[in-house]
Amino acid sequence: QVQLVESGGGLVQPGGSLRLSCAVSGLTFGIYDMSWHRQAPGKERELVASITSVGSSTNYADSVKGRFTISRDNSKNTVYLQMNSLKPEDTAVYYCHAVTTVIPGDYWGQGTQVTVSS
User: Fold this and answer.
1) b/e for 15-25, b at 16 or more Cβ within 10 A?
2) For the chain: N or C, fewer Cβ within 10 A?
3) Residue 49, SS3 per DSSP
4) How far is CA 36 from CA 48, 91, 94, 118, in A?
């Protein structure tokens, strides 16, 4: 049974930081590209950041470049999103996503709420 379990969300003041984690089980983590997406109320889900299966390449949405950092630890089957200098517009549910083309594989986590407010 594949599970992607996000944690680390919460309420933070503008300018603050949070670190999201996504613990993955039930699949071969090292062949999956991982990404973080977010969905704010009334808006479509959008890609925030992605990282390749071996961590050799990352990609970021323009709105988070220079503030967010995606990383992964393949020994712990975990992907992280370090979020600094948070803004109210970063408020959303953040989802972890795993995808591979080696075998049929496309999985989502249940999401974790991030609220940036004073």
Assistant:
1) eeebebbbbbe
2) N
3) strand
4) 5, 14, 7, 24
